[in-house]
Amino acid sequence: MDTDEVDRHGVPRCRHCGGPGDTSGPGLGFHITAKKVPVISFRCMPRLASGCGGVQQISVVRTRGCSSRCRG
Fold this sequence. Notes:
This protein is about 0% helix and about 30% strand. It has strands spanning about 1-5, 20, 30, 40-45, 55-60, 70.
């Protein structure tokens, strides 16, 4: 199931343009933050919007069911 944060293949999506994220490279991919929160860090691949240039993070913590962010 696609959401605003991750597509059905587990690829993180950019919060600025919705493009796919690249999780390979130094400091990218899955890790645990200093506050003990599991996250995936990534960079937007297409960089279509002005905010796409930096490293983005999404939380890996899951909830049961589908929230309003789910897209068909």
